[in-house]
């Protein structure tokens, strides 16, 4: 029962984290930049927002974004972070599907627990790979962007990527390390018996 609860907790963390990674990939508010000194930018009310897909200018009454469509002139770190975040988003699809099929409430005929355990471990490994891609991209991007211009602050997209990657790493580790073993995974279920037994007495049943 403890292993089942841990597996559910790992799945929820992984799913929420993957959504966070997808949101971070699709949005452009990664870092808030300033072309001059921070004091000058605050006085002029003119800041920039830099992301994977566009560079934006934020000023009084103006918000203009320039899409980064010319791949040949893009900095290498932008292209690498794009690839990592896209890979993380794509890896989440099979990982979440595998984890859904091994949830305690999902039954697929008389499938042995060992088969569900293998799918669970594969899904957990994919989630950990997803998390590592997100961690590398969300740390690499602001470090390299700071070399090009002055960073005033981090944007909500970067925070979303950090939180999402951390949740995926935490959830994936729980699934891989704390979900029981192949012999007992998914085999036992509990229900309330009737008749001569006590109403609160739980019996074990094999699926």
UniProtKB/TrEMBL annotation:
The keyword Oxidoreductase does not apply. Keywords: Cell junction, Cell membrane, Membrane, Phosphoprotein, Signal, Tight junction, Transmembrane, Transmembrane helix. It comes from the Eukaryota. Its main location: other. It is found in: Cell junction, Tight junction; Cell membrane. The chain crosses the membrane at residues 83-102, 122-141, 161-180. Residues 1-24 form the signal peptide. One of its GO terms (cellular component) is bicellular tight junction. One of its GO terms (molecular function) is structural molecule activity. Pfam families: PMP22_Claudin. It is a multi-pass membrane protein. The keyword Transmembrane helix applies. Interacts with tetraspanin-3/TSPAN3. Interacts with OCLN. Belongs to the claudin family. Claudins function as major constituents of the tight junction complexes that regulate the permeability of epithelia. This is Claudin. It comes from Serilophus lunatus. The gene is Cldn11.
């Amino acid at each position: 029962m403890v292993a089942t609860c841990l597996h559910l907790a790992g799945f929820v963390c992984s799913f929420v984290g993957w959504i966070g990674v997808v949101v971070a990939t699709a949005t452009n508010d990664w870092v808030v930049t300033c072309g001059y000194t921070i004091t000058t930018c605050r006085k002029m009310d003119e800041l920039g927002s830099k992301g994977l897909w566009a560079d934006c200018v934020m000023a009084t009454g103006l918000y203009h974004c320039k899409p980064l469509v010319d791949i040949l002139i893009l900095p290498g770190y932008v292209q690498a972070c794009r690839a990592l975040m896209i890979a993380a988003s794509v890896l989440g699809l099979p990982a979440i599907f595998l984890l859904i099929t091994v949830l305690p409430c999902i039954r697929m005929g008389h499938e042995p627990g060992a088969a569900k355990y293998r799918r669970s471990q594969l899904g957990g490994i994919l989630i950990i790979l997803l998390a590592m891609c997100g961690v590398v991209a969300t740390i690499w991007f602001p470090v390299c962007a700071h070399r090009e211009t002055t960073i005033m602050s981090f944007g909500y997209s970067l925070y979303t990527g950090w939180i999402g990657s951390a949740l995926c790493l935490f959830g994936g580790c729980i699934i891989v390390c704390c979900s029981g073993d192949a012999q007992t995974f998914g085999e036992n279920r509990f229900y309330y018996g009737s008749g001569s037994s006590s109403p609160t007495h739980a019996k074990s049943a094999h699926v």
